[in-house]
Structures are given as C-alpha cells and as structure tokens.
Amino acid sequence: MEVQFPENFWWGSAASGPQTEGRIAGDGKGENIFDYWYSKEPEKFFDQVGPDQASEVYQKYKEDVQLMVQTGHNSFRTSIQWSRLIPDGVGAINPQAVAFYNHYFDELINNGIEPFVNLYHFDMPMGLQAKGGWLNRETVDAYVEYAKTCFALFGDKVKKWFTHNEPIVPVEAGYLYQLHYPEESNLAHAVQVGFHEALASALAIKAYRESGHSGEIGIILNLTPSYPRDSNNPEDVCAAKIADAFFNRSFLDPAVKGTFPEELVKILKELSIVPKMQENDLAVIQNNTIDLLGINYYQPRRIKAKESAVDQNAAPMPEDYFDIYDMPGKKMNPYRGWEIYEKGIYDILSNVRDNYGNLPCFISENGMGVENESRFLGEDGMIHDDYRIEFVRDHLRYVHQAIQEGANCLGYHMWTCMDNWSWTNAYKNRYGFISVDLENNRKRTIKKSGYWFKQVSEKNGF
Ligand code: BG6
User: Fold this and answer.
1) Residue 218: DSSP 8-state
2) Ligand 1 pocket, 197 CB below 6 A?
3) Which of 172, 197, 342, 365 is the catalytic position?
4) Out of 16, 151, 230, 334, which residue is the most buried by the measure of CB atoms under 10 Å away?
C-alpha cells in the first residue's frame, strides 16, 4: 500500500447541530442567531433556504448512522445545539433535546462510531444575543452552565468534547466583516468577543476536569497558515506574522499554551482596545489548556506587506497591518473561492509538532464544496465526485508525511458526512460523502467518494 496510517486512526467526518438537525413543530428548540436572522432577512441566505430546512437529522439520525457505517466511519463529530438543549440560553432544559441527543449518541456508539461532541458551532441562543451575546460577560457564565449541563447529561457516554468550533469565525464574521449576525464591523468588539470565547473555553475545560469524567476535552480551530509573498522580504514576513497572530495564534496560543501572542497584545495596547477582563481571567486561561486539538484546514492565507496607506480616520481593522496577496497561478476551488494548497496541512501539523509541544491533534475538517454536483450524477444514480477523492487523497498524503516525521495526528475527519446547510451559503456548495436530495424528501445517496472512503478506512490507508 502506498500510504498506511497508524493503528486506530480516526476515520470519519464532522458536522454541526445547526447545519443538520432542522426544526419541527413542537421540538422545543429555542431560537439562535441564525433562526432569528433568517426570520428577518431571508434574502441574505442562498435561495432563501434557512436553518429550519436543514437535512432533517433530527428525524433521520438512525438512517444516517447506517450510512456512516457504510462510508467507513469509526468516529463522527457533531455539536449540541445550545438553543435546543436550553432554549433561552439559561434556565430550563428541553427534555426532548435530552432524549434526542441521548438516542443519537447511543445509536452512534452502538454502531461502533465514537461521538466527538462540540458545544458551540456559531449558534448563539437569541435570548443571550439580545443582551450582547459574546460581548457580554454574562454569556460566559451562561456558557459554562450549559457546558456543565452537557457534561452531566452525556458525560458518561461522550468521551471527546470540544469547547468551540472555529471561535475566530464569530469574531470575523459577526464583528469584523459583516458576514454573520449581528453584522458588525468593530475591532474592539471583535477583540472582546474573542477574549470571552477563549475564557469560556478555559472555564469549560476547568469544569470538565472538576466533573471527574474520564474523557478528553479540546477545541477545534480553523488554522490558515499565513505565507509571506516573499519569504526573503522581511516586511512580507513580518506582515504574515501579524496576520498569523490575529487569525491563528489568537486562539491557538491560549488554547495550548495558556497565553496570548505578544505581537497581538502589543497592537491591542497601542490601539487601546485591550479587552475588559477580571483579575483571575488570565490565570484561568493559563491553567486550563486543552488535551486535544482539532484542526480544520481548507485554505492558506497569502500575505504581503501593507502597500496602501492606512486611513487614520477610519476604524482600525486587522488589514491595517498587512495586505492579502493574490498569488498568481494559485489552484482554486472556484465554487467557494478558496485556494487549494495541500501542503498547508503538513505545515500546520509540523508547526504543532515543533512549536506547540506536539500535543495530540487530528484533522477535524477538510473538504471541498462544489456547486451543482448533480452534473456528475451517473446512470447508476450515484454522484461521481472524483475531484473530491483526489482532494482528500492529496491532503491525506501530506497528513501521512507529517505523521512519518513525528506529528501526533490521530485522525482525519472530512467536512462533511452528508450535504448540509451552510450558513448564508445554505445548500449552494455540497461537501458531503453522501448527497441529500432537496427535491425528494432529503433522500440520501452515497457518492463515489463515500465508497472510496470506506475502503481507505478499512485498509487504514490507500
Ligand atoms: C467550516 C465550518 O468553516 O467550514 C462549517 O466549521 C462550514 O460550519 C464549513 O460549513 C464550510 O464552509 P462554508 O462556508 O462553505 O459552509
């Protein structure tokens, strides 16, 4: 075999509650920011498809778990929806949610698939958002109570927990680039949101350890390696370091080392936007670092030194310190507009090995969203997504190389198991090993990549 992975490697995929479960009348779920935003501005969502119309995992989870078996999963990540379990964000627990998650996790376990459970995937309960969401310190307390509730309810069966998925996304999308509700552009707010997320993560880790459960707890970060335009040009290199501090190390350093990057702290001090914090907060972050790191990798960041003047009258933004470099000849996923750079996954794993104590980690998301995949439907009724097979294989080669060179990478999860609802992109780009037919009662059909993945998982390589 060309590429053989270590024994007990985790093969599977990732999804999230808000992107898959859907809502049915009487399920007791409360509103989160996406439910609310869609109810107010449906035109902001591709084809006006909202989160209520996700892939109906709430009803179809048993069938879905069988499909996971048929596509070689030994592990699978989803998230608990805070607004399903605790509809107002604080207070009463929804008993139907408790029953659903118990059944779902049991179904996975009984079929030999380990559930990896994330607590937060961009889905702030609206009751808390109305009071400021992550901007408000009360949300940190509410999150910790929610986390404790999850550990108490499901901690005996779930042994891999994650405090956040991509905590930089609420910062960027909600408070810098106006891509998600509340569509702000305010660096001081973004910094406060990020700090509260990092603090909430550390407090949840503390609570988990105090709960006496025997599993592991970590965080899932989307790491976008920042490559300078010219690695021999010190100004490009410096700009890339700053971009890295803003978008990667802002969460990676506190999660793994318990500290924030000096370059970032210096900038925040200069701008007088150091987040508000209480006396003990930094010690809490210092003392409660993760057991396990999930790495989501889709694309690199290409950076060059700032070429245009910064408007001193405009509000500060990270891009005041670097420019995005549009590298000629880069390989693109045209549907998503993201560069495909397979070696990036190797560079991240090498960085974690060399600079982050080689802590246990895994690839928690990697994948390729493609529009109009029905073009590739064969007469056999299956989508022939050879491009996805190629994408995964090419990345896996680099994961394997990194492992050969000592990286402590324990698994590979694809984004995603079955086509799902993707925030404002809704069902535009399909990512799954399994297609979901929106016209036909959300019928699931395994794609060619799903059968391929099953073989890879069985052979533990290819
Ligand atoms: C990751 C998220 O950023 O990428 C997922 O964890 C998301 O929630 C996925 O769906 C793909 O991105 P997008 O924007 O194409 O849905």
Assistant:
1) E
2) no
3) 365
4) 16
Under 8 Å between Cβ of 221 and 290: no
Ligand 1 contacts CB of residue 336 (under 6 A): yes
Looking at ligand 1, which residue's alpha carbon is closest to its atom 13? 422
Asked if residue 51 lies in contact with residue 68, where contact means CB atoms within 8 angstroms, the answer is no
CA 331, CA 134: separation in Å to the nearest integer? 36
Written as one letter, the residue type at 202 is A
For residue 108, the SS3 value is helix
pLDDT over 70 for what percent of the chain?
100
Q: Is 16 in the pocket of ligand 1 (CB under 6 A)?
A: yes
Look up the pTM and report it. Answer: 0.98
**Which protein residue has the closest C-alpha to ligand 1 atom 14?**
422
The token duo for 292 is: 């396990």
Alpha-carbon gap, residue 204 to 5, rounded angstroms: 32
Dihedral angle, C-alpha 255, 246, 174, 136, nearest 10 °: 60
pLDDT at 131: 98
Query: Which residue spans within 290-337 are E strands per DSSP?
Result: 292-296, 301-304, 323-324, 332-333
- Verify whether ligand 1 is closer than 6 Å to residue 222 (CB atom): yes
Assess whether the C-beta atom of 13 lies below 6 angstroms from ligand 1.
Answer: no
Answer whether 126's CB lies under 8 Å from 40's CB.
Answer: no
Angle at 302 between CA 298 and CA 304, to 5 degrees: 165
Query: What confidence tens digit (pLDDT) does each residue in 211-264 have?
Result: 999 999 999 999 999 999 999 999 999 999 999 999 999 999 999 999 999 999
- Looking from the CA of residue 420, the nearest atom of ligand 1 is 10
Residue 340 confidence class, pLDDT cut points 50, 70, 90: very high
User: For residues 364 and 190, what is the distance between their CA atoms, to the nearest angstrom?
Assistant: 25
Distance 413 CA to ligand 1 centre (A): 13
Residue 226 has a CB neighbour count (10 Å cut-off) of: 22
Catalytic annotation present for 197: no
User: Using CA atoms, how far apart are residues 450 and 309, in angstroms rounded to an integer?
Assistant: 49
Amino acid, res. 204: A
The verdict on whether omega for the bond into residue 224 sits within 30 degrees of 0, i.e. cis, is no
In the chain, what are the domains?
10-459 (3.20.20.80)
Q: Is 107 a catalytic residue?
A: no
With a 6 Å cutoff on the Cβ, whether 20 touches ligand 1 is no
